[in-house]
Description:
A hairpin with a 2-residue loop joins β8 and β9 (218-229). Residues 247-257 and 259-263 have low confidence and may be disordered. 36% of the residues lie in helices and 26% in strands. It is α/β, with parallel strands linked by helices. The chain folds into 2 domains: 9-216, P-loop containing nucleotide triphosphate hydrolases (Rossmann fold, 3-Layer(aba) Sandwich); 223-383, Rossmann fold (3-Layer(aba) Sandwich), CATH 3.40.50.
Amino acid sequence: MISTGVSGLDEMLGSGIPRGSRVLYSLEPGVDGQLFMLSSLSCALAKGLSCLVILPHTTVDAFRNDATKMYGAQLDLVSGPVVFMDAIDRERIQKTSRSEEGREREWQARIRKICRNHSVDVIFAYFDLLYEDFGPEKAIRLLESAREDAKTTLVLEHLNLGGTALLERFIGEFSFDLIVAVRASFRPIPHFNYFTMVHTSWSPAAPRSIPFIIREGRIIPFIPRIVVTGPAHAGKSTFVAQASDDGQSVDRRSPEGEPTTVAMDFGWLHWKDFDITLYGTPGHTRFDSLLPPYLRHAIGVVLIVDATKPDTFPRAKYLIDMAVKRRIPYVIAANKNDLPQLIKPGEIRAALGIGDDIPVFPISATRRSDVHFVLESMVDSITQFSY
Length: 387
């Protein structure tokens, strides 16, 4: 197996990419996705695999310089087992071969010779100019025919201007084993990049989308903001406190003597390869003016309801409508499941007017295991949501 070097992606793939696979990193225009290819290249070199990197768009020196700036000095492109074909090679082929067929044969001959002489294990190809020169069918054919055997892995990076239809061609017509699409959310706030595991030939897993940030040359799964909201005294502060590795609460006593949040609860946790920030909102209606700005920057909502107080459900439904209008994925945590006079999940679902696709979890916010189970569902909803 060959590691992708991307936190979370290897786990989704079952520890990495099988040898001999065809892999495509498909980048939408404007996304910051060049590190996916570099991360996989770095992992292959660190494993001692012999690599051929095809760079029709740039020179070796320029690529080394840019790659070091993006990934860091730990990417060894000088002494590692790596050979290059670059823009200079492309220019020579174009000058010496007058016809498209002649240029295709020359590319094949040169790649085949390098693969044979250096026992290449992985071919990394920047595909855009090959696509432009030959079209997708011929460009893939010349790379495939140059591979020495079925154990040679092929990894492409491509700027996708053809959308979903082009990805479907790579799956069906070109029989690629793994396709990872790197995309940007259409929402202006929060604007984030995410990658989607569109297809794997060795796994029946459904496509999943993972928001990410780039930090110190690494791709890190990241949930920018999850808002924890609900009616007053539903258990939001307790939920955030139980979920968090670190955080703070701004509470005071209500006229009834109960603690009530007057600003925001904040929580931070690193959980299952994700860095997650939690914002717990006040539940009283007088604080409703705070909600739109926080929801505008949210990527998910956990709505806490008190499962023993059905008179608070209309307030909860109002808060749900705020999330739905902004197209934010959400889950319901029916808190105080350890108390008597409990309302059943089906009755809660009916009272809130939500469909079977929205999870409703009976929990006790005082139990960390319950809280983390809800967060797991929230992350699933985020990663499976259609952005």
